[in-house]
Amino acid sequence: MSVLVVGSIALDDIKTPLEEHSEMLGGSASYGCVAASFYSPVNLVGIVGEDFPDEHVDFFRRRNVDLTGLKIVPGKTFRWSGEYMWDLNIRETRSVALNVFEHFTPTLPPQYQETPIVLLANIAPDLQHHVLDQVRFPRFVIADTMDLWINIARQRLVELLARIHLLILNDGEARQLTSETSLIKAARKLRDMGPQYVAVKKGEHGCLLFGAENQFFSCPAYPLEDIHDPTGAGDTFAGGLAGYLAKNGAEVEFSALRRGVVHGSVLASYCVEAFSLERLKTLTADQIACRYEMFRRLSQFDVE
Amino acid sequence: MSVLVVGSIALDDIKTPLEEHSEMLGGSASYGCVAASFYSPVNLVGIVGEDFPDEHVDFFRRRNVDLTGLKIVPGKTFRWSGEYMWDLNIRETRSVALNVFEHFTPTLPPQYQETPIVLLANIAPDLQHHVLDQVRFPRFVIADTMDLWINIARQRLVELLARIHLLILNDGEARQLTSETSLIKAARKLRDMGPQYVAVKKGEHGCLLFGAENQFFSCPAYPLEDIHDPTGAGDTFAGGLAGYLAKNGAEVEFSALRRGVVHGSVLASYCVEAFSLERLKTLTADQIACRYEMFRRLSQFDVE
């Protein structure tokens, strides 16, 4: 099965305490579609300006991403600039220029309209609605979001929750959206608002997946010694998860979601090993399988 | 096999945003010995004043804790008073009165001197050294510590590390003691200072166990909706782990340590469900087995 990925495609300037890089490939859809492409065919929906380097388009193409839904228009590509502190969990946005992304209201190519798995990567809820409106009979819809949308587009985000199967957000955002400090209670409230499943990302502490009352999964974080650039880790997680579900096919059951969350975590753990999508460019299926097994080992213990 | 537990025995005044209780049974040895007693015989080393209520002594006795090493002397029992904020991870010590504990330099009863598993619960490193000096051929020595000792007795703590097999501390303390922000690097430095294994507690995010280069275990936290009193969770964790290792017997291998860390986490998860040791008073072996299985379910996923 295929995955439809809609989100931002950006050129990022990123600064960490140790390195600084500019005009790097970024954006939620870039990370999401490349991550998903390790598992299944991907239909990309996005927009870039004429300044968008050919090499990035070629990279998407090499990953077998369908680019029928990628608009290249006059003007400048969306730009984001951010800086990380020594605690790489803390990020400061230095500047944002939406550019061609500002008035993006895509029309889905006909061959995209029945994509069974939909990943609404982190973008404005309005745009997530607009794309979802055009998908017929989606089997499983995943939406990622962030604090910005909780702050400035809360109502549209809440409306979206009723239309999706899985919501992905981080722990602070889950608390912010529900006014609950307990993540258990927050996840229950979020599920009451629509999605059957909620994945709460906890950065270096892994991820919690919540389903029906007795469905709960705690995925550890991979113990990385050096994280070079946390940018896109969440988008990569969402893309890997969506891609895995598409590959797994048919019904999405909790056991498949558990494996999907691990695959998303595997890809995110690779993503942060280098700036931008650089590490994903050289990643192989064998490396994914190897780290998946490492995740299994680091969380296993015997029946007693 | 038996466990020797040395640490503080206290009467605690504890305030949370929702409740306040005074003169509750507390202290690292109280939590540690009761937790260990669910798995193996325990030899307790500690001191209390004549004001120490008989009911607490009776409780230890009912748990089959050997009290030959418990000194009851004229004067007042060690008292601690603390307050938790809405984020129950943040605690403020309001007052400490060492009382009879101040000059405690125990002489081990002869029958304690060959206890194979030793738990040096959270107390001053000097006292931990003093007790360890008197144990002949210990098979496995576990030491718990806290930021206070890193601040005021760092050198003695560092000397202790060379004498123990497993160090238990929380993430902030691991970083403080090593000046490393990465827990992987911090654990490696700590292991270079002596202990073969390091367990890093992360509160609501579970626990990481580090051994030799390829020995790593990530234990999730049990998803509790309501935590009533976090006091003693770390001491209970250490006690459950030590007790399990004693029950498991013979050689302490990494697979046994994994299970021990889960058992410690199971007991700690029950401990925080009520104030003081109240929940441990009614805890049963069946409940421990049930939650152990829950821990297994919440962290398992299939081979893929």
Write the layout of secondary structure elements.
Two copies of one chain form a homodimer.
Chain A: E1 3-6, E2 10-15, E3 20-26, H1 28-36, E4 42-49, H2 54-62, E5 65-73, E6 78-84, E7 91-97, E8 117-120, H3 125-132, E9 140-144, H4 147-152, H5 154-161, E10 166-170, H6 171-178, H7 183-192, E11 197-201, E12 207-210, E13 216-219, H8 233-248, H9 254-271, H10 278-282, H11 285-299
Parallel strand pairs in A: 1-4, 1-8, 2-6, 4-5, 8-9, 9-10, 10-11
Antiparallel strand pairs in A: 2-3, 6-7, 11-12, 12-13
Task: Give a quick set of tags describing it.
alpha/beta; four-stranded mixed sheet; homodimer; UDP-N-acetylmuramoyl-L-alanine:D-glutamate ligase; nine-stranded mixed sheet; 304 residues; 13 strands
Description:
- The structure is a homodimer of 304-residue chains.
- With 304 residues, chain A is α/β, with parallel strands linked by helices.
- Chain A has one domain: 3-Layer(aba) Sandwich (UDP-N-acetylmuramoyl-L-alanine:D-glutamate ligase).
- Chain A has helices spanning 28-36, 54-62, 125-132, 147-152, 154-161, 171-178, 183-192, 233-248, 254-271, 278-282, 285-299, and strands at residues 3-6, 10-15, 20-26, 42-49, 65-73, 78-84, 91-97, 117-120, 140-144, 166-170, 197-201, 207-210, 216-219.
- In chain A, the strands form two sheets. Chain A has a nine-stranded mixed sheet with strand order 5-4-1-8-9-10-11-12-13, with helices on both faces. In chain A, strands 3-2-6-7 form a four-stranded mixed sheet.
- In chain A, helix 1 runs parallel beside helix 8 (233-248), helix 6 (171-178) packs across helix 7 and helix 9 crosses helix 11 (285-299).
- Chain A is globular and about 60 Å long.
- The N and C termini of chain A lie far apart (40 Å).
- The model of chain A has no long low-confidence stretch (mean pLDDT 95).
- The A-B interface holds A 86-87, 181-185, 202, 205-206, 208, 216-221, 223-226, 255, 258-259, 261-263, 292-293, 296-304 and B 86-87, 181-185, 202, 205-206, 208, 216-221, 223-226, 255, 258-259, 261-263, 292-293, 296-304.
